[in-house]
Design brief:
The protein is α+β, with helices and mostly antiparallel strands. It has a single domain, classed as Sandwich (Jelly Rolls). The chain is 17% helix and 24% strand. The chain has seven helices and 13 strands. The chain starts with a helix and ends in a 22-residue tail after the last strand. The strands form three sheets. Strands 1-11-6-13-4-3-2 form a seven-stranded antiparallel beta sheet. A four-stranded antiparallel beta sheet has the order 5-12-7-10, with no helix packed on it. The longest helix has 16 residues.
């Protein structure tokens, strides 16, 4: 496996079992505290991606987003709240001590260097649950669609907190697909959160079909760190198994890259981006 050739890289045993448990325990605490939060469903399909104010103002916050299938037709939770959350995001790497500490372990900086980054900043973070039975599909996409810079610099660091398998919705990637074009850009439709978001098509080249060649599964044991190039098409299917597939991801951008003001994720002025 080669970063330049494949656009992704796996680093086994990157994070200790103790750090993984600390992240999972902290996530459980955050979820328990979220019972009175607004209900914001994170849609994993791009054509209906959540773009409400709770989502758009989360760049400097730690917020929970629910699974689509956690509710019945009348909007009532059909699973316990601890099994209802799709993800936590998007600034825990800077505003939560546990996440900040693990996000800045030397192995994370070393991984960024292995991806050729010179002076990376930690832009956003997500604790992804992939809940048993109802864990949602994440449609095939490129991270640069959502975290756009000029030039393109985004790199994802995706840490398996639990074993990721075909049964519970592991990542699938297109080796070498990062050499293709950026297909779409997701951005704010106006100056206010109330204006919502839009997708702009940049290139008509289709993304790979989910679960089929040229995509290949990346089954990894807990503790593995997966690096993802910002242009690499990747996908994960729904989790219909009885086991969760928790993961923690941090996205990095170069300090000297231009980060447009209409990107969906914006940080408040009093919380500037920081590096390792």
């Amino acid at each position: 496996m080669d970063w330049e050739r494949d656009g992704y890289l796996t680093i086994p045993d990157a994070v200790s079992a103790e750090d993984r448990r600390r992240l999972m325990d902290r996530a459980a605490e955050i979820v328990r505290e979220a019972a009175d939060d607004p209900v914001s469903v994170f849609s994993t399909h791009e054509q209906s991606r959540t773009s409400d104010e709770w989502f758009l103002s989360s760049g400097g916050e730690v917020r929970c987003f629910f699974e689509e299938e956690a509710f019945d037709a009348d909007g009532r939770l059909v699973v316990p709240i601890e099994r209802s959350i799709n993800k936590i995001g998007h600034a825990q790497h800077d505003v939560d001590d546990v996440y900040s500490e693990v996000s800045r372990r030397p192995v994370m900086a070393e991984a960024a260097a292995a991806a050729g980054m010179r002076d990376p900043l930690l832009l956003q973070s997500m604790h992804i649950f992939k809940q048993p039975r109802i864990g949602g599909e994440v449609t095939c996409h490129q991270d640069a669609t959502f975290l756009y810079t000029e030039p393109m610099t985004v790199v994802g660091l995706w840490l398996a907190l639990e074993d990721a398998t075909l049964d519970n919705g592991c990542l699938w990637v297109e080796p070498g697909g990062h050499r293709g074009p950026l297909r779409t850009r997701f951005h704010r439709a106006g100056a206010s959160d109330a204006d919502g978001t839009a997708f702009t098509t940049l290139d008509d080249t289709p993304l790979p079909e989910p679960g089929r060649a040229p995509l290949v599964p990346v089954e990894v044991p807990a503790g593995t760190l997966v690096l993802l190039h910002g242009l690499l098409p990747h996908w994960s299917g729904p989790n219909r198994s009885g086991r969760s597939r928790e993961a923690y991801s941090v996205h990095l951008v170069e300090r000297d890259a231009d980060y447009p003001a209409d990107n969906w994720l914006q940080r408040p002025a009093d919380l500037p981006l920081r590096g390792f």
